[in-house]
Amino acid sequence: MNVDPLVLQAAHRGDRKAQYALYRDCFPVLMAVCVRYGRDEQDAAAAVNNGFLKILQNLDRYDPAAPFVAWIRRIMINVVIDEFRREKKWRSATVFPDDTNPEPYGPPLDGNEAEQRLQAAYLENLLRRLPPVTQKVFNLFAIDGFSHQEIGKLLQISEGTSKWHVHEARSRLQGWLADYARTGE
Amino acid sequence: MENLDDFIREQFEQDDPAGRFPFREAYWEQALPLIEVAGRKRRRALWWWWLTGLLLLGGGWAGWQWSKQTANQAENRLQARQESSFPADRQTPDQEADLAREETATGLNKPEPKDFPAMTSQTAAQQNASANLPHQAAGAPSWVSGSSFNKDKTTDSHPLNQPSATVIIPAIAPSVPAAAYFPGKESTPDTTHVMVNSVTWPAMTELPTAFWPLTSPTGQFAPARVPAKHPVIKPLRKPVFAFGLHLTGTAYHAAPQGRNWGTTLGIYTQYWLHPNWSLSAGLAWRSQPVELSVPDTLANVQQLYYRFGYEKNTFRETDRQLQFIELPVALHRHYRAWQMEAGAGYGRLTGVRTVRTQTYTSSLTPTPEVTEKRILGQLGPYRRSYTTFFAGLGWQPLPRVQLTIRGTYRPAALITPGNETDKPPGALWLDAGLRWHLFSHDRIRTKR
Q1: Buried b / exposed e along B197-213 (16+ C-beta atoms within 10 A)
Q2: Which residues of A touch B300 (CB under 8 A)?
Q3: CA angle A64-B7-B2, nearest 5°?
Q4: Would you tell me which of A80, A131, B20, B150 could form a disulfide with A37, CB atoms 3.0–4.6 Å apart?
């Protein structure tokens, strides 16, 4: 994704056309991040808008030496994690029946999805079946390259807990992928 | 295991999200209001910065002008006293200091020259001139304002009460004709001369105020006393240290609809560095309305499916009130019953009052049942500490009660990044309430 620096400047000044062009370019990248972090499409669109607002407000801090996609992805991850922390606040006051049962957290794969190749969309579905914290930690560690220390700070958990979540995610994903390879579902 | 991570990462890196998440205009239409609101907030915040800056500058300039004027008045008064021909007013610096010590010891005020309106340097000079008039040498009475008045002269035995006495009614101004009254006789007013004991003298151009009661139109002389309007001499009591309670109602400029109000309750101490300057510090509890909800997600819903139906509980938590402890420190400038104050404060978030709304529906009760419960929320989305700057006015109608109004600005946003809301807690507010001095240690101060 290549973004014209003039468009960035105009968007930062408040030019609506430039903002629209920037939003159109950024939307798929931001949406992919949100969906990977466990949002359904409607929630993800709302989160994308929040993330885009943050991008607009911080355009003056963008260093052109760094890839623009990496920068907006990082901002989007921060937004998603912040929203997750707010939800976590609520969850800590409410007891859920089973945090280890993956079923409540993602829709089960139907036959059509099982027929898909191992593509990003299918992996996204698998990731969304993970418990929320495990899913966030695995996304941050395995895909986005955060260290356990950084994850601990972001999610307000210990490094050990972060490692445990990564281990748990790997075990589950491996099992599901093995099932897929064996049965095609 | 590492291979699994690499495999998944590669899958996502090779992915083209544009194919899976095509752009739709509807999303942009949802984003547009957010962008516009953010722009407005930014402009508004800028405007408030300017306004606060202007107010502070204006207040500072006004205070400076006022202090300058007060200093000039004090200097003029001192100069007038030193230049006065009236001996009691002429004081050397050493005498001034002695007098101040004496007054402090006795707790009494010395009446100032302004309490005798006629005692300006000009009138004093005229009085000196009148004191040298020949009629004084001839034994005629000479009363001048501000001089020590012998009250015995007001008795019936005084020569002026004798029928043969002539009273001087000098010309004061063109509108007031000069006249000489001869008790018991008809007389024609002479606007240029007056007569005393059969001697005519040029009329005085100005009459000290103390003479006014003598101008009796009846012609009957009634010796007047020194004007009754005399300053009441009493000591001024000024506190040195005070301790008390303050209670204010607070109006926030930006707050959830219909809930702009909060309260502040606290204690304070105040120490007078100078009769007109004091420092105060306090500890206060403040409440501020807020409206922040956790977004609705699947995680907020508990749904149970049975073979014959379902039960669904939806929870929503909304933070309604923030509670802070504040430590304000202020500098006060006092003027009579009024005071101006300005200072800074440190605030610490101590609690969040949250309302949890539970909506229950089931296949048997399709109409939602909504229940609300007040709980203690978590501090997560909010800044834990902040700094404020304030300026205000106070008026003390009673010795122990002071009414105050104070405007406060908090530069930092209260909600941490990533938790933005359409209704952020206000950064500007106005406190109006009262202070109650529970205890104060006073000292007697004489007015200088």
Answers
A1: eeeebebbebbbbbbee
A2: 87, 90
A3: 100
A4: A80
Residue A40 DSSP symbol: -
Q: Which residues contact A97 (CB under 8 A, 6 or more apart)?
A: A104, B302
Give the ipTM of the model, two decimals please. 0.76
- Residue B358, pLDDT > 80, answer yes
**Mutation target vs A (from B3, B9, B15; most A CBs, 10 A cutoff):** B15
Strands (E), chain A: none
Q: In chain A, which among 114-143 make CB contacts under 8 A with chain B? A: 118-121, 123, 132, 141-143
**Length of chain B in residues, anyone?**
448
Helices (H) and strands (E) in chain A, counts: 9, 0
Cβ contact, residue pair A119, B15, below 8 Å:
yes
- Return d(Cα B171, Cα B175) in angstroms, integer: 9
Per-residue pLDDT at B442 exceeds 80: no
Tokens of B377: 């929320």
Q: Among B1, B11, B378, whose Cβ lies nearest the Cβ of A170?
A: B1
Q: Are the beta carbons of A75 and A52 closer than 8 angstroms?
A: no
Token code pair at residue B415: 């909600």
Place of tokens 């012998």: B150
The predicted structure's pLDDT at residue A117: 44
pTM of the model: 0.42
